[in-house]
């Protein structure tokens, strides 16, 4: 997964370079690519983890590059290609629709005249094609109703349940944004200069419509639901990187000497990126993977998942089912065992919406029908959240009775001073449980 993320990120960096160079020349392209590379790896956006936003950005930047080409030619091929890429961005995550909207507005403004409605219609149709093809495939497979529930009905309910009063929205936006900006403030400051350069720089003005729309709609892509989780800000990074490139190019254009210009460009690129790397030197260069997981995710059981998965793989057959009561789907992946339920996350089951209780009952029915060989109960706050644990009362009430048919086989206690594993007879010597643990149960009549 991490290798795949590195490949995706490398391609996106290359596309950002091509975008910057096409807009403002080589200096802007180099600066934008370097800025995106530094920002997209940052701890403040959880950059080394393969969140969906990285894949949205891959397709969205490709769509933007083709859109610039489409704006310069009457040919429809670049326009269709751009729309298809934006459509794939939406498939990665619904937030990708903001980039497609920015592209449509840009196209409508640039394609003045009688041909504008036709070109916009072609673009919008191309954007819709990936979703339509996916919908048809899911309908053919008999899964369209489930797909529609999770991607439309539940997604709408999810964005409307944040327990933050409207009066506190600006404070929340400011606080969450500051956390993202602080480790790379020099880069973000130059990006702000680049945004202002769209007004005062003669070289930057020709493309201010494009960059203005990209920046504005990128902000909208981050905002739905006002959850403002760190990785959501990855959607803003292409615009920030390009504005960083604009700032570098705007300063460079004011220098007559090529040698001086090259030195200033190098300094404007290297210094803020070096500052960003220094600010995060532990995370980027010193910490082990376990330390990085603890730094970004606290006591969530990502490191422990490997050991638990090995245990499940050793004590079950490939055809046996297991179930994880919590939001740790990586355990299924590492163990190479199929889940006893389709609910590989439990976040949605404890949220405040009308689908929560039916989802809990559905998960219960699926587990009982599968009769899993092993059950992993994740007693980690980050895998549920206090509010979600209380709301998931139907599921957890059922679980207490269901565990009568199981016996405790392995316990994993996770604390700030280390992780402890207890197996078999060792469980009796466990002592007081910490605030985070995993309990692995074996079905009493199971014989591998």
| Rg, nearest Å | 25 Å
Q: What portion of the residues fall into strands of 2 or more residues? A: 5-15%
Measured distance between first and last alpha carbons: 30 Å
Helix content: 55-70%
Number of E-state strands: 6
Count helical runs: 20
Shape: globular
Order of helices and strands: HHHHHHHHHHHHHHHEHEHEHHHEEE
Profile the largest sheet. Answer: 6 strands, mixed
For the biggest β-sheet, the strand order reads 2-1-3-6-4-5
Count of domains: 2
Mind sketching the topology for me?
Layout lengths: L1 H23 L1 H15 L11 H19 L6 H16 L4 H14 L5 H25 L3 H16 L9 H13 L3 H16 L7 H15 L14 H16 L5 H22 L1 H6 L2 H9 L4 H14 L5 E5 L4 H6 L2 E2 L16 H15 L3 E6 L1 H4 L1 H6 L1 H10 L3 E10 L2 E6 L12 E8 L5
Parallel strand pairs: 1-2, 1-3
Antiparallel strand pairs: 3-6, 4-5, 4-6
């Amino acid at each position: 997964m991490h290798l795949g993320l590195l490949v995706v990120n490398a391609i996106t960096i290359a596309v950002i370079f091509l975008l910057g160079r096409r807009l403002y020349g080589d200096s802007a392209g180099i600066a934008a690519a370097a800025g995106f590379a530094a920002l997209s790896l940052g701890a403040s956006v959880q950059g080394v983890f393969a969140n969906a936003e990285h894949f949205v950005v891959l397709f969205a930047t490709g769509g933007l590059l083709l859109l610039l080409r489409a704006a310069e030619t009457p040919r429809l091929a670049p326009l269709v290609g751009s729309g298809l890429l934006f459509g794939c961005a939406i498939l990665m995550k619904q937030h990708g629709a903001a980039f497609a909207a920015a592209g449509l507005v840009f196209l409508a403004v640039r394609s003045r005249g009688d041909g504008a409605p036709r070109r916009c219609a072609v673009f919008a149709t191309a954007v819709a094609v990936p979703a339509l093809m996916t919908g048809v495939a899911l309908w053919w497979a008999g899964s369209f109703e489930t797909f529609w529930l999770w991607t439309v009905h539940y997604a709408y309910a999810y964005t409307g349940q944040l327990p933050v009063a409207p009066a506190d929205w600006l404070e929340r936006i400011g606080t969450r944004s500051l956390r993202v900006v602080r480790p790379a403030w020099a880069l973000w400051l130059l990006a702000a200069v680049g945004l202002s350069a769209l007004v005062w720089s003669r070289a930057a003005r020709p493309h201010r419509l494009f960059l203005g729309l990209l920046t504005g709609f990128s902000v909208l892509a981050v905002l739905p639901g006002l959850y403002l989780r760190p990785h959501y800000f990855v959607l803003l990074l292409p615009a920030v990187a390009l504005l960083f490139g604009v700032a570098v190019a705007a300063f460079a254009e004011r220098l007559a000497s090529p040698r001086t210009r090259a030195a200033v460009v190098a300094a404007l690129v290297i210094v803020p990126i070096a500052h960003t790397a220094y600010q995060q030197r532990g995370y980027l260069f010193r910490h082990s993977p376990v330390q990085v997981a603890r730094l970004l995710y606290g006591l969530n059981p990502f490191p422990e998942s490997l050991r638990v998965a090995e245990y499940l793989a050793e004590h079950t057959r490939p055809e046996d089912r297991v179930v994880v009561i919590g939001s740790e789907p990586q355990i299924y992946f590492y163990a190479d065992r199929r889940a006893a339920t389709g609910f590989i996350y439990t976040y949605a089951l404890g949220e405040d919406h009308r689908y929560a209780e039916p989802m809990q009952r559905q998960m219960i029915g699926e587990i009982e029908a599968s009769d899993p060989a092993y059950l992993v109960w994740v007693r980690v706050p980050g895998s549920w959240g206090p509010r979600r644990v209380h709301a998931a009362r139907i599921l957890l009430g059922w679980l207490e009775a269901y565990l009568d048919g199981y016996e405790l086989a392995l316990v994993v206690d996770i604390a700030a001073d280390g992780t402890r594993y207890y197996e078999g007879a060792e469980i009796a010597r466990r002592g007081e449980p910490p605030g985070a643990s995993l309990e692995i149960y074996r079905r009493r009549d199971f014989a591998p």
